[in-house]
Amino acid sequence: MTALPDDRLARVDHYENFPVASWLCPPRLRPPIAAIYWFARTADDIADEGDAPAAQRLADLQAYRADLAACCAGQPDSGRWPNVFGPLRRNITAFQLPEQLLADLLDAFRQDVEMTRDGAVHPDRAALLAYCSRSANPVGRLLLHLYGVQDAKALAQSDAICTALQLINFWQDLSVDLPRGRYYLPQADASRHGVDPRAPGQTPHRAAATLLVGELSAWTRKLMLEGAPLVHRVPGRAGWELRLVVQGGLRVLDRMAAQGFDTLRKRPKVGARDLPLLLWRSTRM
């Protein structure tokens, strides 16, 4: 598999737990939400798809960052990613999207490349939260910007939800990430359980690894519940979409618990069969 051409990156298919710019979103906000999504999705693909060496990925992310700066300044970009920066440019102008939040996402993708290259592990939960503050939280803050919700409490709740969603993906995807050299189990927690965060499935520590994932999942559920009251602050249909996002994340944690937190063996998913339950739980919020 070779490195993907620039403009094909935006068309790579990905499994997504949660909807993006769905029918629940107000029509006028679908274009900026889609533009933000494809900006982030394409950058993630630059960092992770194909077999390009780390040096090339970092150079491409730097070029992508330069195009973002040009786009925000109203200047011509390189033209390498027209399907990304064309729509993004229009929506930055129309909705005054903050450049720093978009740039934070790129900084997180750069860190992904560097840590994978070096085989590095996040030392503790604080380091993992710092990473999530750039890899996940900016998306929630951008969405709140679009809805005109900017108070400190709402931003903190959004950060809790977005961080929880990111962490859920980490614990859910262990069977996928570990073989690719992506290590998200924090060293301090892993060491306390006698587990190698780079190879948690090694015997005789498999049982300890499931206990570790269970403990991290409980921490993640607490974060999600801390942020959940935000659903009452987001107006209209978007508030209902956020309810489904929150309940979708919690349902993944339920699926993990049902299989004994052994996500090293099997990746839990939420599917169509879960929708009635998600709707019921969303209504009860």
UniProtKB/TrEMBL annotation:
Cross-referenced InterPro entries: HSQ_synthase_HpnC (IPR017827), Isoprenoid_synthase_dom_sf (IPR008949), Squ/phyt_synthse (IPR002060), Trans_IPPS_bact-type (IPR044843), Trans_IPPS_HH (IPR033904)
EC number, UniProt record: 2.5.1.21
Keywords: Transferase
One GO BP: terpenoid biosynthetic process
Top-level class of the enzyme under EC nomenclature: transferase
Alphabetical list of SUPFAM superfamilies matching this protein: Terpenoid synthases
GO molecular function, one term: squalene synthase [NAD(P)H] activity
PANTHER family: BIFUNCTIONAL LYCOPENE CYCLASE/PHYTOENE SYNTHASE
Protein name: Squalene synthase HpnC
Organism: Ramlibacter agri
